[in-house]
Specification:
It is built from 27 helices and no strands. It has about 600 residues and is mainly α.
Length: about 600
Amino acid sequence: MDIGTISLVVVCGLIVLLAIGMPLGLASGALALVVLVLKFEPTLLTDPQCYLWATCPDLNIPGMLTARPGTGALYILLQKIFDLMTEYVLLSVPLFIFMAALLERSGIAKGMYDALDYWLSNVRGGIAVVTSLMAVIMAAMSGIIGGEVVLLGLIALPQMLRLGYNQNLAIGTICASGSLGTMIPPSIVLIIYGLITETSIKNLFTGAFIPGFMLASFIIIYILVRVNLDPSQAPLPERKPHETDGMHKGALFGAFLSIMGAAGASVLLLRALFFLVSGQYILEEGEDPISLGMPYHIPYIAAWLGGFLVLALFVFGRKRSALGWKYGKGLVAPFTIIGVVLGSIYGGITGITEAAGMGALAVFLISIIMDRSWPDWKALFKDNMIKVIAILIATTIVAFGLGTYIGGEQKAIWISMTYIVVFFYWCMRAPGKVPLVWDGLMRTLRSTGTIIWVTIGAAALAGAYTLAGGPTFIANMIVGSEMPTMLVLLSMMVILLFMGAFMDWVGIVLLIIPVFLPIVRKLPIEEIGFIGQLDPKHLSVWFGVLFCMNMQVSFLSPPFGPAAFYLKSVAPPHISLTDIFRGFLPFICIQLLALSVLLIWPPIVEILL
């Protein structure tokens, strides 16, 4: 059968199967089998009785699917799926989901919201701005969308409605900001895109930074403009007793930033000293210098540290710095987690997967620390000092005993694992930690299972369609039509927007991107965009960021925008789905504006590359 007819069968079949409620993973897998049969062995459908020896004993059908099991198209397809499922980077997906599940119940988000609320409480629309900033920080921590919308709906929505904020403004702010995890690294959408297209995930993260924060800035600017044009949309809250404002609050914030700057400079100084002592600063020929990690960076970092300490202790003063720390300490945990995840990636310490694991561990440890106040921890340690010392000694004896017995290259691993197991055991003895971890694991299992099954089915369909020559057929059809380059890209965006309204992003990235990206690579690079020219080596990165911006719109698009259903699950009963989608409209326009900027000015993704 010709590929044009097969393409029509795939499109119609997918629409029908999804319309009757079949899960996307199963629908894609079934259509993959149909595509293989139609292309490589149509007699299975047209004359199936001839495969029964009793019916056609003398007929020998040289089928490309059934003649030699373990070879041909089925084997190639199986190998493609196996290679995708065994990608090491894919492990980061459940780890990021687990981290987001822990974040939702750890109390970190509540502390961050309270801190941001204090600094912006006297600004008109401040709660909405706080919600957007909180969403940006949460996106930079985990890259998960659903959990952010639910958490913001639980924390911010009741507060905004209580203060008299316009309902549509509150709903749109929460859902548009909560879906920023699609764009801001470490985005799971970017990870899956990188795996499918074999594009550097680190480059995708770097390229998405500015577009992601640009979109967040558009949302915040829109909120401020809207509430200042119509103050009834966001009434100012009543001033709290003993609350400071004006210059004094600005000085407190400056003192807090000085403390944070001193902490960051201390970390950079320790990192540079570690590279110096370990000799990792010695570069081989052609190797780039370590960013802020070379010996000649140490005096500059030490000067930054000294400057921040002078600001905190002498310029702002100890009392003001203590107050600044009191009101801003809720931001320390989120920025620590961001530093662990993104800092370990861009600092060259770990890869994507290891950073996800470190982030999940950081969230778990911080949730334990936040369960008690500092005086409680000192009292607990004082009361159990002998027990703690005895456990450390016993653990050390066991660890080094195992390491000595095993020996070789595994010695250090076994010593480290012993400490980790004992430490994790004592952490799990903390009140409420077993339910926290168990609930996080169950949610991770459900979410990961859904993603994996959709990935398997969509990868099967995409692979079968590729073997049948589908991408080449579509590429030749579009390129041969002599459409202007920007019209081709605009048509792709419209298709993605339409599919995003009905299909999950995992299916789209696995089904559509393998078809669209080869077409984009064939387009004249000099005709892409209107401002500046994109470097050809960054074409895949730009298209990946463009795709993620498009998927950002899909999370709000009716009738199946998932953000609406996430919010509805925690919204007050009087807020209907119609109300929620009505609140999305201006924010969808903002997202389309950001998408237009990426189309008009492609080199925006190269600024940090």
